[in-house]
């Protein structure tokens, strides 16, 4: 790990994450930035995936299920908005990241092992993490469907060839 992520960058990334909109302002999202090499190594050994082994920092995203209006809970929307803000901030600061959720929420419950390493209290759930650092290889854009197949004006129109994005 030769290029560290400045702690100031991690603070800025977390600040914009916590500034994200929150359903009924319940603010159900919490964050833990990890820049200690020993803790990162423990987390990497639990995750056991090459997808994050070169990351010089990590942000664990926690949620707390707090219901509001008529029993509605917006914690998934809350942490999703926070993550999107943080991903954009990473790029703005010259770092790279990605949203890692599936590999830690499978039946093997890697997230619980991760939560234990970083002392997450029982009332919070570690739902994903963002590895943060300089990309080890050039990034390639994933292929996306063209806008005209996914966005329309005034009505859904899967056959439209004009007037779309």
TrEMBL record:
Family annotation (InterPro entries): Nitroreductase (IPR029479), Nitroreductase-like (IPR000415)
One Pfam family from the record: Nitroreductase
Entry keywords, A to Z: Oxidoreductase
Organism of this sequence: Clostridium neonatale
Protein name (database record): Nitroreductase
Coiled-coil blocks: none
Record-stated family: Belongs to the nitroreductase family.
Record domain Nitroreductase: where: 50-133
Example GO molecular function: oxidoreductase activity
């Amino acid at each position: 790990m030769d290029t560290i992520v400045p702690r100031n960058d991690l603070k800025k990334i977390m600040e914009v994450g916590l500034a994200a909109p929150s359903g009924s302002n319940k603010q159900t999202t919490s964050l833990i930035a990890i820049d200690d090499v020993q803790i990162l190594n423990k987390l990497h050994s639990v995750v056991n995936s090459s997808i994050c082994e070169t990351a010089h920092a990590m942000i664990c995203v926690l949620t707390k299920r707090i219901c509001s209006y008529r029993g509605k809970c917006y914690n998934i929307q809350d942490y999703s908005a926070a993550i999107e803000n943080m991903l954009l901030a990473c790029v703005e600061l010259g770092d790279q990241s990605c949203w890692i959720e599936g590999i830690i929420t499978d039946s093997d419950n890697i997230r619980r092992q991760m939560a234990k390493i970083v002392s997450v209290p029982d009332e919070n759930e570690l739902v994903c993490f963002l590895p943060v650092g300089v990309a080890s290889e050039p990034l390639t854009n994933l292929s996306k469907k063209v806008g005209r197949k996914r966005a329309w004006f005034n009505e859904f129109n899967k056959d439209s060839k004009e007037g779309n994005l």
